[in-house]
Amino acid sequence: MINELYSQKVKKTILSVTNNKITGILKSDTAKTGLRLYNDGIIGVAGAIGVYDEAKLANRAKQMLNFKVPYNCEPAGNIERTVDLSDSFALSDEDFIKTSETLLEKLAKQYPQFAVNHQIIYNETETRLRNSNGANLVFKDKTVKVVLLMKHKESKNMMDSLGISFSRGYDLDDVFNTVSQTCAGYEEKVSLPEEKMPVVFLYEHDDILAKFLTDLNGRMMGTGASLFTDKIGQKLFADDFSLCVERGPLDYYSSFFDAEGTVLPGDSFALIENGVLKSPYSSKKIAKEFGYAATGSAGGEYDSVPDTFPTSINVRASGKTIKELLGGRKAIYVVFASGGDFTPQGEYASPVQCAFLFDGARLLGRLPQISIRSNVFDMFGKDFIGLSADGLSKHNPFKYLAMDMNVVTIGGWL
Question: Between vectors from CA 236 to CA 211 and to CA 239, what angle results, nearest 5°?
Answer without folding.
Answer: 110
